[in-house]
C-alpha cells in the first residue's frame, strides 16, 4: 500500500507543477488554488508513504514521478521540445526509479 500512496503523491506533484505553470506567477486564482491544494495533498501522501518506506527511496521516487510526469505533460500538452536528449534523460530517471523500487525489496 505505501507504494500506491507514493505513486498517487507523485501524480499530485505533476498536478501542482502544471497548475503552477498555468497560474502565471500566481496571478490567476484557480490555478493558484489548485497548485496549493495539489502541494498539500502531495506532501501529505508522501508523509504517509514515508511511514514505512525509507526516506531516500520515497523522496527519490516521488520527485522522479513528478519530474518525468511534468516532462511528459509539457511535451504532450504544452508543446515543449521532445528532443532525443531530453527523452533520454527521462528514460534514465525512470530507470533510476525502477532500480530504487527493486532495491527496496
TrEMBL record:
Signal peptide: none annotated. InterPro entries: EmrE-like (IPR037185), Small_drug/metabolite_transptr (IPR000390), Small_multidrug_res (IPR045324). One of its GO terms (biological process) is xenobiotic detoxification by transmembrane export across the plasma membrane. The chain crosses the membrane at residues 33-50, 57-79, 85-102. The keyword Nucleus does not apply. GO terms for molecular function: transmembrane transporter activity. The keyword Mitochondrion does not apply. SUPFAM superfamilies: Multidrug resistance efflux transporter EmrE. NCBIfam families: PRK11431.1. This is Guanidinium exporter. The gene is sugE.
Amino acid at each position: 500500500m505505501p507504494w500506491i500512496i507514493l505513486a498517487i503523491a507523485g501524480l499530485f506533484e505533476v498536478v501542482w507543477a502544471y497548475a503552477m505553470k498555468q497560474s502565471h506567477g500566481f496571478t490567476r486564482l484557480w490555478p493558484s488554488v489548485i497548485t496549493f491544494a495539489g502541494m498539500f495533498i502531495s506532501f501529505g501522501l508522501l508523509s504517509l508513504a514515508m511511514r514505512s518506506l525509507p526516506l531516500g527511496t520515497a523522496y527519490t521516487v516521488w520527485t522522479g514521478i513528478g519530474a518525468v510526469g511534468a516532462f511528459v505533460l509539457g511535451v504532450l500538452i504544452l508543446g515543449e521540445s521532445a528532443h532525443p536528449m531530453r527523452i533520454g534523460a527521462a528514460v534514465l530517471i525512470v530507470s533510476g526509479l525502477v532500480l530504487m523500487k527493486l532495491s527496496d525489496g
